[in-house]
Amino acid sequence: MQSTREKVKLEFQMYSNFKEHAIEYVKQAVQEDDAGNYSKAFPLYMNALEYFRTHLKYEKNPKIKDAITQKCMEYLKRAEEIRTILLKNSME
What we know:
It comes from Castanea mollissima (Chinese chestnut). This protein has helices at residues 4-34, 38-58, 62-91.
């Protein structure tokens, strides 16, 4: 049986992992985006957004929460732009 301290430690590790995974996905997405690999960039942006969304559930600091939310809006906007490009290219 886990102690309260172990549970808190595990919860913190999970919380940190969501943010770390999101950041890694964003880095990869931007790299693919910059290279013009939109079909690779789009799912990476979407994965990042999922991880950030989960991270936000656990984030207690309102300033950090606002900053992450703002970045998520930027990533979502770019993902939507890429989706439009991909749809347009698939119709040609």
